[in-house]
Amino acid sequence: MSRTASSPAAMASRSPSLQAAERRPKKKTSDVRLSAPNPRALVLAHLLLLLSRCPGSQATSLNKNSLNPNSSLWDMDYEGLFHIKKILPGTPGSYKLSSLLRSNALVSHEERRRLVTNQNLTQKSKEEQLSCDMLLKLYRYVFMDAFGPKLAWSIFRFHNCDKEVNPPKIQINPLKLLQSKLKPLLLYRVLKVLRDMGVLAEVQQSKAFSLLKKQMLKTRRMLFKFEVKQSGPCPERAPHLTPWRPGHDSSRSVVIGRGEALRLESSATFHSLRIQDGGALVFADQQQPIALRARYILIQDGGALHIGSQRCPYHSRATISLYGKATEEPEVENYGKKFLGVDRGGTLELHGRKPRSWTLLDQTLYAGGLPYGSYQSEKRWSSRGLNIRIIDADTARVVAAGRFDTHLLADESRRLREFLATQAPGKVVAAAVGDSAAKSLTLETRLLLKELLHSKHILHLGYRQPWALVGILGGGRFSTTEDRKPYQGNGTTGIAIAGRDFQTYEGINFRVTAFSGWVKGIPHNGFRVEVSKGIILNLVDEVTSWLPGDRIVIASTDYSMHQAEEFNLLPCPECKSNQVKIDGEMEESCYGQNQCQFFSYDTFGGQIKIQRNFTSVHMAGVELKNMGQQILGSYPVHFHLSGDVDEKGGYESPTYLDNLAIHHCFSRCVAIHGTHGLLVKDTIGYDTLGHCFFLEDGLEQRNTFYHNLGLLTKPGTILPSDRNEATCLAMRSNVYGNYVPIPSTDCMAVSTFWIANPNNNLIENAAAGAQDVGIWYIFHRVPTGQSEGQYPEAQAEFTPLGIFYNNRVHSNFKAGLFIGKGVKTTKASAENPREYLTVDNARFRPHQDADPVKPRVPALIDGLITFKNNDHGAWARGGDIIFRNCGFSDNGIGLTLASDGTFPTDEGSSLEVAHSIFVGESNNIGSQGGQNSYWGRGANGEYRTLPRNKTFPIRGFQIYDGPVRLVKCTFRKFTPTVDRYSSAIGFFMKNSWQISPQNNVSQIRMERSVGLKVFFGRSGQWFGDNDNDGDKVSIFHDLDGSVTGYPDTFIGRADNYLLRHPGCLTVPRWNGMICSGKYAQLYIQARRPENLTLSIARATYHSHPLRLQGVNRGVPYQQYQPVVMLEQAYTIHWDGRAPEDVILYPINFNRGDWLHVALCYPKEAVFTIVADIYQRQTGRVHSVKHYLAAPSWPSVLNRMGEWLFYFDSALGYLFIVLQAHEARKGHSYCSQQGCERIKIVTHMSSKDSWSCALNPFLENNRRLATQHSMSQRLTVPCSQCGAPQVAITSKPSTKYVRIQIQSVSRADIQNHLKSAFIKINDEIFLFNSRGIFFLVLDSCSGAVVSRRHFDTVSAINAASAITDYVQTSIEESSVVLVCSKDGSEMMGTSEMSVFTRLGSAKPIVFHKKGSFAMLGYKGQARPSWIKILNQAANQKAAFLQHYVPLMLREYKCSANSAEF
Question: What are the pLDDT digits (tens) for 367-383?
Fold first, then answer.
């Protein structure tokens, strides 16, 4: 398989320290590893807080001169005292002031240090206490500051602390006291004293203490950070840490508690570890690795675990291993088993080395590392004779192969000579004997092989003698290597092996090997063409932080996510800063087929769980492996109901996960549950089960996912949406009764990013392969689980979208991006037997402040790149949603936009796609095998992987219902083949829903490679009968003619006579037609009965009615929505007894638009007809008008201002005029006043059906059949059409030029192909003369700066002239384009080393009568986009196409370089 760069691109991710996995205990262990940074990266960092935080524990000193017992409190700096960041702890006792106040002891900083560093931690130290009198004066001052001196004196009027207190009969409002500018902890102490004295108003006490506790928690976090800053540069260097070497005892339960601050200096094993009550554990940073093993670790109540810090990453290797079986030990409440837990007041700081987490390939990584893949062939019997392979030394491609039975057949020698004569000089020849080749090998042929290949052994080759050779055809005598073995009668000779290294023009080193021999009486021979010296990856970013021995994974860029592969990094002294070397073999087919039955391995891994009110949690540079459990709530990293974890929650340093490598885990990657404001960045989730980056209950908001990568996301079992088909059907314990789940709708939704609330940010992430969806925005109608009841119904659906920018999705089966659907928020019941949290229906309707009454807030999907997804690149339902600056390539369907909901439930939302590129078939052809099930010919005739099925109809943009707008978009390479349809614009297949005529396109660029612009489908495979209601009424509006060539026209299905008129143009290839005119929708509701087929015909085409089945989805009526031409007459019939109630809505009518409608009824029918306006949001009906019967139809037409109808009892037609009287705005279906409608209630005595004459409007046909003339066809190409960007790119700021180079060989000229050309974007440079052509561009601006032609046929010094031009005339930092036209006749096989100045890895040897094309660069750098194609005379003419980036840093452009 290959990994492609540019458009589309592949990814490489780096997982720290995977090579150390052998040192883990087997299976039931889950590792958290931190790698060491480069020593140069050391900087100062916050240090561990060592102060106990329990009430009544030691307190901090205030300042150097604070509270001397002999000083006067009234002389102190009280403002400094009140607002300093210190604690005044203590608990009041009795109603004596001495007991109330004397517990407020203050401990000096020196005394505190003695406490925490004393090895005898049970020894008590002497406390320095303040006198009660001083504290009394302090509280009096506090009260005076809050309430004034009078009230303060009333409360604290006594002077003696030991006298009994008789509290005054005063009630103090505690909320007023909270308004004072006092530190929360001091204020809390005052409130408690007042409460115990009985002067605090009870009515507000609980609220006051609740508010104060929140302030105290915030202060506590700030105090922690303050203390850390005072501690020194790195945690493990803190002087008060006690060295700790506890050893190994799996039965020991360890508690690190009050006053204990330990530095772990050796590996240890415990049963469990609790860090609490201010205790601290710091890992020593030393060369020796440290491994800590425990069944669980719990950090709580001021406890802290530190491994490195943000500014001082850990240098060494630290491992935390969580061990144990699911069947062992009881669970710990709220945590379960096998966990690292952070509870209230806990601190977890893990900071390892942070290498670049992942990047993109900057150059295609070919299968096996070679442009045409590695080659292997091995034969035993049936290969007698000489076996030959011809390899192109410039590309490593096997270009010819043959077997010549020179043992048995005399004529085979002649055929071998002819075969070699057709090969171009310079080609590599590999030869190997199979069985025997000598008996009929003629002397003439032996001499030829000796001459062409300089073989030393061919003349004496004997019976069954193994012989292998690799040489260059026509090369020197040192260009050949060969080997032979003597044949032994016992049938075992050993293997003759010949091999030689070569280099492609791109600089890839490869080896050609041939072998021949006998083993145990069986002949063996074969060939290999493979990379030598490792594969060099060219990457977008610098990766000097990746080290030899690191293990990386390369994502699939094909339809199967299982093509992701892992490699070890090798030393690479020749690599640049953005290159690394890997070893290992690239699989030719999907190795995902090697999976056994699901969960055949242990899935009970470890877990990290962070609970509410923790003090601090930061994790960076951490590897998590074998984590997670197939148990609800047990995930590798789980923020559980943590609330706001950023500044909003009082965290001065917001919580983050940075540069985590989460791989081979058993339940998700990062679970964010009831948590807001978390930053997850540069994190990799690879080979995991269930949703990877997961928002759980639907209320999680303000979280940011920045530059994360998820790949190989496999199904799990925890939620219905995690399950695949098999587990969905098997797991039925939570359904009601005997309900059998429907996997495709109830389950099968596993996603790399499961975003359950739109108010979260996704920036520059990649979802590189999930079983179902890459990024799924799912909507909980109400919060679920433990968050139930925390927001109103449907709030998530109305919440505006957070930032969505520059994300990429590929190699997903169902869709790259999916916006829509919800989860079932009720338990299984008889009414709805499906399981709780099963996938359900929901629609995204973003409004300001999540209030449906307020204006809509368009959701912007900016910079999405989606490719190689089996079904959809992206699907979005709702409104308003805008896709902008996006790229869709090689998807089954690029993009489908579905409306918020069909009328009458929808309120006129719309969807838009702008400035985007759609590609049907890119140059990423993929590789056959594995889960890439479909392999067939592409539009260019070459084989490639295909989405869904060989016959699946590919569509770039699919219209479902609408309204949708397509603006300034480019379409490329949508061309049907004999196997399948492929169209730029298509329609939802088997569609029973409505389609809006407001769908429109403008400024569309259809490139020449688009063979089918629009397709309405045909009966047959995939389309069925193509006869559903939506199939028949498919339509869109070409506003400017950029699709059809005719401005202001509508494109509809060819057989829809409601749209057709004599001026329409039929386009058979589209199964469509182009019509001018005015079109809208007629919405019809029918009741009693609700199961009729409606037949509607336009009067002018009465013999071509449109039959609609209608839609009835859980409502007490049938609904039909034909698209109609305005200002025309229509008849409506039913296939049974006419409905008693009919409502007609003019949809998408502007004021004054009208229809004449005749409905068929029995002759005895009696009607009550009312017109009104229905305001759907409020349910209010107004402007009610009652229709009166008119004597004739002409009288109705002559009195249009009145509300009249006419019933012709002879014909059975009810005639009525349907007209819009109110103005409509924007994309709303109805007017600003509401939806105008006509309600027809019919009383019919007969229950039989009734038929009417076909056309009651015969006399009006001529007047109504007015032809709408087509606009004049456009003749000038639209220069402003299409996406402004040229290429699909992950770097929107980078400008590109599109380059095409077409050379012409001698054979092409003989076949009348006369001109070679170079095309730069839309500008073509033709070359009609024979020779070599150079076109030079400025790499900064893209402007053409030089052109030169060299006559290589008749000119004598063409080679030296080319050399001089390249060396002296072409400026540095230039893009050099080269093409040829029968231009290498004169130069023959001479080498031209000057092309190495343009990026070739070796000199160019031109082929006689061949063709040559080059995309080169002159400068100090060697960009990854350099391409060379040097074709022999018998090969297809050289053609190159590429997107070349401008203004790259390596070009060294000036700041004022002109833009192209």
Answer: 788 888 899 999 988 89
Instruction: Report the candidate in 439, 493, 356 with the shortest Cα–Cα distance to residue 37.
Output: 356
Ramachandran angles phi, psi of 469, nearest 5°: -145, 140
DSSP code at position 1014: B
3-class SS of residue 1404: strand
How far apart CA 1064 and CA 727 sit, in angstroms, is 53
pLDDT at 424: 87
Question: Comparing C-alpha atoms, which of 650, 740, 758, 753 is closest to residue 709?
Answer: 753
Residue partners of 1258: CB distance under 8 A and separation at least 6: 1099
Q: Is residue 933 within 8 Å of residue 945, measured between CB atoms?
A: no
pLDDT digits (tens, 9 = 90+) for 392-442: 999 999 999 999 999 999 899 999 999 999 998 889 999 999 999 999 999
Determine contact, residues 1253/854, Cβ cutoff 8 Å: no
Note the pLDDT tens digit of each residue in 897-919.
998 766 766 667 889 999 999 99
Q: What are φ and ψ of residue 1264, in 5° steps?
A: -85, -15
Q: Which residue has the tokens 């490699």?
A: 567
The alpha helices in 1213-1254, defined as continuous H runs, are none
CA angle at 97 for the pair 91 and 103, rounded to the nearest 5°: 30
Query: Which tokens hold the place of 591?
Result: 């190795």
Least confident segment among 464-468, 505-509, 536-540, 1324-1328: 536-540
| Residue 300 near residue 276, CB atoms below 8 Å | yes
DSSP alpha helix (H) spans, 1233-1372: 1261-1264, 1306-1310, 1358-1364
Question: What local confidence, expressed as pLDDT, does residue 128 receive?
Answer: 34
Residue 608 carries which side chain, given as an amino acid letter? I
In whole angstroms, what separates CA 830 from the centre of its chain?
A: 38
Please, which residues have CB within 8 angstroms of residue 643's CB and are 6 or more apart in sequence? 612, 613, 649, 674, 675, 676
Instruction: Give residue 78's pLDDT.
Output: 31
* Of residues 702 and 1436, more confidently modeled: 702
1454 class by beta-carbon count within 10 Å (0-12 exposed, 13-18 middle, 19+ buried): exposed
Within 13 Å and on the Cβ side, how many CA atoms surround 34? 31
Instruction: Check if the beta carbon of residue 518 is closer than 8 Å to that of residue 493.
Output: yes
- Average predicted confidence (pLDDT) for the chain: 83
Start-to-end CA distance of the chain, whole Å, equals: 36
Which residue(s) pair with 1005 in the sheet?
Answer: 970
Write down the pLDDT at residue 903: 73
Distance CA 1439, CA 1317 (A): 10
H/E stretch holding 341: strand 339-342
Q: How many Cβ atoms from other residues are within 10 Å of residue 1056's Cβ?
A: 22
1405-1452 per-position pLDDT tens digit: 888 888 999 999 999 988 989 999 998 888 889 999 999 999 998 898
Residue 768: is it exposed, middle or buried by C-beta count within 10 angstroms (0-12/13-18/19+)?
Answer: buried
Two tokens, residue 410: 């005399």
- Confidence check: pLDDT of 17 > 80: no
Residue whose entry in the numeric block shows the structure tokens 């400026």:
1371
Residues in the chain: 1460
| Distant-in-sequence, close-in-space partners of 1407: CB < 8 Å, separation ≥ 6 | 424, 426, 1384, 1389, 1430, 1431, 1432, 1433
Give the 3-state secondary structure of 462-528: CCCCCEEEEEECCCCCCCCEEEECCCCCCCCCEEEEEEEEEECCCCCEEEEEEEEEEECCEEEEEEE
Output the six-digit token pair for 144: 């005076």
77 pLDDT more than 50: no
815 CB contacts (<8 Å, ≥6 apart)?
772, 773, 774, 776, 869, 871, 872, 873, 874, 875
